[in-house]
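Lecture notes, unit on protein representations.

Consider one protein chain, 474 amino acids long.
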Amino acid sequence: MEQTDMAVRFPLSEHGTPGRYFVVIGSDVARKVCGFLQAAGHRVRHFTQPTDDELRQALDQQVAGVAILLDDDVESLRYALAVEHICPHVTLVATVFDRTVADQLVQVLPNCRVTSPAELAAPVLLAACLQPDLLALTRTSSGHAGARWEGDTVRLQPYRPPRSLRYRARLGKIRGQLRPHDSSSRIMLTGLAGLLVILLVDWAWLVALHHRPPIEALFEATRTVSTVGPVSVPDSDTAYLVFSIVAMLSSIVFTAVFTAGAVDRLLAPRSVGIVGPRALPRSGHVVVVGLGQVGLRLCTRLQQLGIGVVAVERNPQAPNLRLARALGVPVIVADAQDRFVLRKLGLHKAQAMAAVASDDLDNIAVSVAARAVAPELRVVMRAGDHEAIAETRSLFKIGLVKDLGSLSAAYTTASLTGLRPRGVLVHGKRLLVERGDGTFVPWPHANRCDHPQERNAEADTGPRVATGEDPSGR
C-alpha cells in the first residue's frame, strides 16, 4: 500500500477442489461457513460443542481443514490444541478475540490461522463512519490507506481525514474541556469556581484599592477563602469588612459543595473525564454504542485518526470498561435507546453514530432512536440478515448495515480453501476477499446450514439451504 494510486484486478475465485472433507465447530458464523462449504460441493461435519470422543471420531479420516468459531477464547484454545493433538498439522482456523491469546496460539500452532471478527470489521466500520464512499480504512507503515470502488475495480489510496472534519473534531475536543455531563462533576466545578471567584475578587480589591503588593494581597485573599479572615482591615473601609464576612460565609458553602462533588467522583468509577483526552467531545465526534470487542477497536481506530469519540455501554460491569479508561476512551454507562441520553451526547453535532452491540435488535432500536434525535446523522449499524432487519429496511432507510457474520464467514472459508486472505471488503451486496498479493476475489454470500442448534448437532451431507434465526454474537 505504498503506492499513491493502485488499481486492483479481480481474478477468478477458487473455492478448492469439490468433495473435500471439513470439520466446523461453532453455532452462528459456523453455520454460514458450513453452508458455504456445502454449496461448494464439500463434505462437512458440523458440531456445536463436540465431546472429545466425537471430535476424535470426526477427525479419524482425511481432513482438509478444521474451523473453530466460538465466542469463548478459552474454548477455542482448548479445541485447537485438541485438534492438533488428534490430527497434527491440519489446516486450522480459529476465532480468538484476545490478542495475547491469539499470539500465543500462533506460536504454539504455526498451522493455525487466527481470526477475530472485531479485527475484520474495524476497517469496514471505520470507513463507513467517516465517508460513505470508502469501503475500508486500514493502517499502513506510512499512515492509513482507504479502499474505494471505482468502475469495476478497487483502488487503494493513502487516506487522511478531510481538513474540515479534523477541524471540527479538534474544536469539539476543546469545547468539551471543563464541560462535565454528570451532576457530581458539575457540583464539584461549581464549588471550585465559587472559591476561585472569591479569591480573585479579594485579591483584586486589595491590590487595586488598598495598594497591597500582589503576593501579600494573595496571602490575605487566601486567608479569606480559608475562612481565617484578613490580617487587618482599615478602619475607613467598612465595605471591605462586609465583603470579607460574606466571602468567608460563602467559602464555607462552596467548600462543602466542592467536597461533595469530589468525594462522589473519587468513590464512584468514572469513565468520562472533566479535562484531557477522556473529556466528552461536543462536535465532530463519533458515538459508538456497545463496548464489546468490536466497539473498543472502532474507538481506538478513530482516536488514531484524531477523531473525537465517545462510547456508550449499558452494562456497568462490562469487561472492557477498565481497558477503555486505560486507553483514554470516554465511556458513558447508559441505555442508548433513551433519547435523552442521545441528546446529551450531542448527536445533532456528531460526525456519525455506530451501533455495534452484539444484539441486532438492540442496534435497530438505537438506530431508530438516533434518527428521531438527529435525522441527518450518518448511522452505521452492525447487523446480520435477521428477518426483522429486512422488514425494517423495507420501511425506511435506518443506516448503513454491516453484516459482521458474513465478513467472518468469508474470511474463514477463504482461509480453509487456501487463499490466505488479508481482509474482507463489502461493496453493496458484494463480498470481496483481499488476497496476500493485493488482488481481490469476489466471494459469494453463504446461506446458513440447516443443522439443528443443539449441543452435539452434526451432519455429513451435501449442500442444503439453511433456516433459523441468528443468535446474537460477540
